[in-house]
Write a structure and sequence with these properties.
Elements lengths: L1 H15 L14 H12 L2 H14 L2 H12 L6 H13 L3 H13 L7 H14 L6 H15 L4 H13 L17 E2 L8 E9 L2 H15 L7 E8 L5 E8 L4 H12 L6 E5 L1
Parallel strand pairs: 1-3
Antiparallel strand pairs: 2-4, 2-5, 3-4
């Protein structure tokens, strides 16, 4: 038991070395990124976001990483937006972002704990970190790779190794969150057929539409391809509520799987079937 506890403490210390809110020194790709780094160091996050956003959208991996760290640190964006940009940078082969994703998946910060993904990203970071200029990052990633490996079953290790071998840098810009949608708003008591997931219940149709826009912004790609349905019901003494639902789904299993994924992001969700 003592050995296990000591090992766990060491893992946390190693992982924490990559902690959120750190903005490592690097040679800026463009003058605007240098200005953004200066803004970050000065604590002027709104200005930094303004400078980083267009660079990130153009596909600058270092800007995507810095923007992601800013959002994950609670400055100006959502956790989902931070994950989106961190993943975009990591998929381009930016080692700092890959190590950070490994940290997020290993600890369940903003995502469900996924040791396969954690191992994959730590492994790629260890491989791609420059041994001369990123020696510490390479060492930390290699250590965390070994730590996470002990959590994997043989089957999961094989899956992770296959994903590492198949990985290739991707220069595509991350997809932006889906735009707000007015969707379908049912009349009071109307039954709208279909299989959907319910995410919230509001007191007015306007609040329901606003909540859907908020959820699209906060959850981003997790709601991609889903359309809004507002189901209005009279609950008697409790009043009238307008249920924010998304779908449609082909079957209950698909809807349940989506709910499981959303609950891992701390979003309430239940499956509804209407005939």
């Amino acid at each position: 038991m003592r050995l296990s506890l000591q090992r766990g403490a060491a893992v946390i210390a190693v992982i924490a070395a990559l902690g959120a809110g750190s903005f490592p020194t690097a040679t800026p790709a463009v003058a605007d990124e240098a200005a953004a780094r200066a803004s970050l160091q000065a604590g002027d996050y709104p200005k930094a976001v303004q400078e980083l956003q267009p660079l990130a959208e153009k596909g600058e991996a270092s800007a995507q990483y810095l923007l992601a760290e800013t959002y994950l640190g609670g400055h100006g964006g959502t956790t989902m937006e931070g994950l989106k940009w961190m993943t975009a940078a990591a998929e381009q082969g930016y080692a700092q972002a890959q190590a950070r994703l490994g940290l997020l998946y290993a600890t369940g910060k903003g995502v469900a704990i996924d040791n396969v993904q954690a191992y994959r990203w730590f492994s790629l970071a260890a491989r791609l970190a420059d041994p001369n200029t990123q020696k510490s990052l390479k060492s930390v990633s290699e250590t965390n790779q070994r730590v996470i490996a002990k959590r994997l079953s043989p089957e999961d290790r094989a899956k992770a190794d296959a994903a590492i071998i198949a990985w290739k840098p991707n220069g595509a810009v991350a997809a932006l969150p889906a735009p707000p949608s007015s969707g379908t708003v049912g009349k009071l008591g109307e039954v709208i057929p279909g299989i959907r997931i319910q995410l919230a219940a509001m007191r007015s149709p306007e609040e329901a539409a606003q909540e859907w826009s908020h959820l699209q912004h906060a959850l981003g790609d997790a709601l991609a391809g889903l359309n809004l349905t507002v189901e209005s019901v009279d609950l008697g003494t409790k009043g009238i509520y307008h249920r924010v639902q998304a779908g449609p789904f082909a079957d209950k299993a698909a809807a349940a799987a989506k709910c499981t994924a959303l609950k891992a992001l701390n979003q309430d969700c239940l499956v509804v079937v209407r005939k």
